[in-house]
Amino acid sequence: QLKQNYYANICPDVEKIVRNAVQKKFQQTFVAVPATLRLFFHDCFVRGCDASVLIASTSSNKAEKDHPDNLSLAGDGFDTVIKAKAAVDAVPKCQNKVSCADILALATRDVINLAGGPSYPVELGRLDGLSSTAASVNGKLPQPSFNLNQLNAMFAANGLNQADMVALSAAHTVGFSHCGKFANRIHNFSRSNTVDPTLSKNYASQLQSMCPKNVDPRIAVNMDPNTPRKFDNMYFKNLQSGHGLFTSDQVLFTDSRSRPTVNAWARNSAAFNQAFITAMTKLGRVGVKTGKNGNIRRDCAVFN
Ligand code: HEM
Ligand SMILES: [Ca+2]
Ligand SMILES: [Ca+2]
Questions:
Q1: Closest ligand 1 atom to Cα of 248
Q2: What are the chain's domains?
Q3: Strand, helix or coil at 20?
Q4: Which residues have any ligand 1 atom within 6 Å of their CB?
Q5: Global pTM value
Q6: Is the ipTM of this complex over 0.95?
Q7: What sections of the sequence does the record tag as coiled-coil (predicted)?
Q8: How far, CA to CA in Å, does 227 sit from each of 132, 174, 223?
């Protein structure tokens, strides 16, 4: 059972300590924002929010972070958690008392707010998981090619409804994608269309020039072409104008079942913020470990 004041007696200043460390990281690089946010999502969807994604592989265990779907997680997300954990552990009363899973949840709240998004209370009391394998990632994370039914099914498996899924997808209002993740939409889309017809013509040609056919696979583009460094509701306005980068983004507008939600949140950013907070809070409850099912790691990347 998570609660907001879980560390009140254990480490009363944990929120301030994490916030300061995250802010320092943010001042060094904006990439901390999308990287940490995506890291939290990929953690929670595989074995719950238990910091399993932070575990490093060893000679005897290929960990989650080395699954193909996690190889594009940016290092600055991991580094944000490591820095925040070090700041927490530097306070004697707090040393090894705050879980990596909770530090990731707090850091995620903080990066969203630092990028101009809403702030919200974070429920705490998660333990760190005892297992992390690449194999356990199979089929647990959504693919950019997904349609609405596939998205809804995968989010429902984590206790999230369609509105939650649409709200959380707006995380793509910040950050980058490698060209390969949407190449099918701009080159050889189908027999009748070179380009995905749900993509705006202008945007498609911009994407084609940034991501030509044999582009270096390391090249990445902003997912929100308008306000890439602002956590805002531009994501929904982009969908309305055919500027959704992935099939899984654009489908939220093309499918009539989710379009009204997209339109509502494009119009009303306060309503979006509220829905996003609700959905993030639900995401943070997924598969939480307590008791014998977890512990508090001394090093977030290594089992105790
Ligand atoms: C709805 C289904 C989703 C799909 C199919 C999806 C897929 C992807 C893909 C393919 C990328 C690009 C990775 C790369 O090439 O580097 C990406 C990036 C990103 N995703 Fe998602 N995602 C989804 C939902 C979410 C959710 C729920 C969140 C967080 C709440 C999220 C946060 C992010 C962020 C912040 C980035 C940018 C990462 C960076 O710049 O380092 N995504 N996503
Ligand atoms: Ca996890
Ligand atoms: Ca934005």
A1: 5
A2: 14-141+284-293 (1.10.520.10), 148-280 (1.10.420.10)
A3: helix
A4: 34-35, 37-38, 41, 72, 74, 142-144, 146, 151, 168-169, 171-172, 174-178, 181, 220, 246, 248
A5: 0.98
A6: yes
A7: none
A8: 35, 8, 9
